[in-house]
Write a structure and sequence with these properties.
There is one protein chain. With 507 residues, this protein is α/β, with parallel strands linked by helices. The protein folds into two domains: 196 residues, FAD/NAD(P)-binding domain (3-Layer(bba) Sandwich), CATH 3.50.50.60; 200 residues, 2-Layer Sandwich (Cholesterol Oxidase, domain 2). It has 15 helices and 21 strands. Strands 1, 2, 3, 9, 10, 11, 12 and 21 form an eight-stranded mixed sheet that branches. It is globular and about 70 Å long. The two termini are 29 Å apart. The model has no long low-confidence stretch (mean pLDDT 96). The structure holds flavin-adenine dinucleotide.
Length: 507
């Protein structure tokens, strides 16, 4: 009963609850559970469908993208100026993007929190203040350090290269305690081993009475006398309407969609949809004489913060061979040669701790128009990252290195690599991806500088909260699921503490 599929409703649906949460991803799931723990009646409204782990375990990568990801994984951020066109992935299912993660879990780095709490004046965003939330999440999500035995040969080779260069690699922490090393986390764990929120958080929420309404697109937030009083929308596929009354509304649609909902509801201040950061990510392939079979092992197992001062985090990454093949350069014979070489290829990735160059806008379709202008500083970081990864590959003994530059043949020597970096092609030729959109409804101490207060309540409307990646005021330089959850948990606890105030306002 606790999951109601909106697409099965033949007639309009309405409900009256304490709190309605829009979005069941990393942020929304945590908020729903925290409020249910405090005894509130909570309804979660999710645009995507519910797929049980046993069901997505059997999906092919393309089926998984179609069923679990937004725009079947083909969303993009349009590059403005000399900026790569970036694919931007996000989830659209019960559990949101958390279902698609590589399971990597980081706390927000202390330096980032220091900047938030001092330069941005968000005084209670300190490592000490957030420690209890992170500690609890680490228990809830069964976060563990990845054992060395789970490293794929692909990762081992890059670690060997790093050792030779004096670059320190460290084991990652992940929320996949029973990982069997199938290397296809981004399509939903095939073994139900990843503690995405559909598996780890929402079951408890449902046990505590939370109802999840799926296939239900929230279109507007209803406001009465300056306070949010509910949401309304349509069931996907049927167009049947629903309306939920609530004393508190929490938008947790993710950084790409919360701004759309706020704007569509007429609640946008100038900052809504601005300040988007993307953690532009890229990977380098390395061809070895030995058989690497990089798919055998944890998809992600090590990282390096060695270049953090240069705005780069290195993270091991692999993906399904079919997906790799689709991204290779060349056509016909040259493409086939690379595809045949997949068993001999190792991969490693990096992401940029980026400036806020992105904007999210409503336009013709349901999906946002996302634009992103990469700063000059980040363009330097991009090519520095490519150079570092290429160096690691050659240090590990790679015969050739596949750089993430569209149309470029593999480079076969350090000299070729350095020549390329010394005189780089336009950044727009670099193949970049984003998995961590953040910051588009920024938290700030000052209504003139952001969208939500430090409590998560919007500056423009009472009783309306945002609790997802969009409130993080800057990029963080590390993977974002745990940071989003910790901030959402803090916001949820604040709502619980002051719930009577909000309920009185709504009365
Ligand atoms: C492929 C991939 C790999 C990743 N890997 C990692 C990783 O290894 N480690 C890590 O830390 N992070 C990772 N991330 C990032 C992490 O998943 C996100 O930072 C986190 O899930 C963001 O949480 P959120 O609550 O902001 O949004 P989401 O988790 O995206 O949830 C938003 C939900 O809201 C729903 N929604 C949106 N609009 C509406 C509406 N109007 N009405 C109803 N519902 C709506 C969406 O369908 C979605 O389910 C990855 C992300 C992706 C896509």
């Amino acid at each position: 009963m606790s999951i109601l599929a909106g697409k099965d409703f033949g007639a309009p649906f309405s409900a009256d609850v304490d709190v309605v949460v829009v979005g069941s991803g990393a942020g929304g799931a945590i908020v729903a559970r925290e409020l249910a723990r405090a005894g509130h009646a909570v309804l979660v409204v999710e645009e995507g469908s519910h797929h049980a782990p046993e069901s997505y375990a059997r999906m092919t990568p393309s089926e998984a993208l179609k069923n679990l990801a937004r725009e079947a994984g083909l969303g993009i951020a349009m590059g403005l100026g000399d900026t790569p066109l970036m694919s931007v992935m996000a989830g659209k299912c019960v559990g949101g993007s958390s279902v698609l993660t590589g399971g990597v879990c980081f706390r927000i780095p202390d330096e980032v929190l220091h900047a938030w709490s001092t330069a941005l004046g968000l005084g209670d965003m300190t490592p000490e203040a957030l420690d209890p939330y992170f500690a609890q999440l680490e228990r809830d999500l069964q976060i563990e350090t990845v054992a060395d035995a789970m490293r794929s040969r692909s990762t081992e080779l890059f670690v060997e290269g790093a050792d030779k260069m004096g670059v320190v690699m460290k084991s990652l922490k992940r929320n996949a305690p029973r990982c069997k090393g199938a290397s296809r986390c981004n399509f939903g764990c095939p073994h139900g081993a990843k503690m995405s929120v559909d598996v780890s958080v929402l079951p408890e929420a449902r046990d505590r009475g939370v109802v999840i309404l799926t296939d239900a697109l929230v279109e507007t937030i209803d406001v009465e006398r300056g306070a949010a009083r509910g949401v309304a929308g349509t069931f996907v596929g049927t167009g049947v309407r629903f309306a939920i009354r609530a004393r508190v509304v929490v938008a947790a649609c993710g950084a790409l969609h919360t701004p759309l909902l706020l704007r569509k509801s007429g609640l946008g201040t100038a900052h809504v949809g601005r300040n988007l950061t993307l953690h532009p990510a890229f990977r380098v392939g390395a061809l070895f004489d030995e058989r690497v079979e990089g798919w055998d092992g944890a998809m992600q197992s090590v990282y390096s913060d060695h270049f953090a001062d240069e705005g780069l985090t290195l993270v091991s990454a692999y993906t399904a061979p079919s997906v790799l093949a689709a991204a290779f350069p060349g056509v016909g014979r040259s493409h086939r040669a690379l595809v045949r070489a997949i068993p001999h290829l190792a991969f490693f990735g990096a992401m940029i701790h980026d400036d806020p160059g992105g904007t999210v806008r409503r336009w013709l379709s349901r999906e946002p128009l996302v634009t992103y202008r990469m700063s000059a500083r980040d363009r330097l970081r991009l090519f520095r990252g490519i150079e570092v990864l290429g160096e690691l590959a050659f240090a590990a003994g790679a015969r050739a290195v596949l750089l993430p530059i569209f149309g470029m043949a593999p480079v076969r020597s350090r000299a070729e690599l350095h020549a390329l970096v010394a005189s780089p092609p336009p950044a727009k030729k670099v193949e970049c991806m984003s998995f961590h959109p953040l910051g588009s409804a920024k938290m700030s101490r000052d209504p003139r500088a952001g969208v939500v207060k430090p409590t998560g309540e919007t500056w423009s409307v009472d009783n309306l909260f945002v609790a997802d990646g969009s409130v993080l005021p800057t990029s963080i330089g590390v993977n974002s699921q745990l940071p989003v959850m910790a901030v959402a948990m803090k916001i949820a606890r604040g709502i619980c503490e002051r719930f009577e105030v909000y309920a009185r306002r709504a009365a």
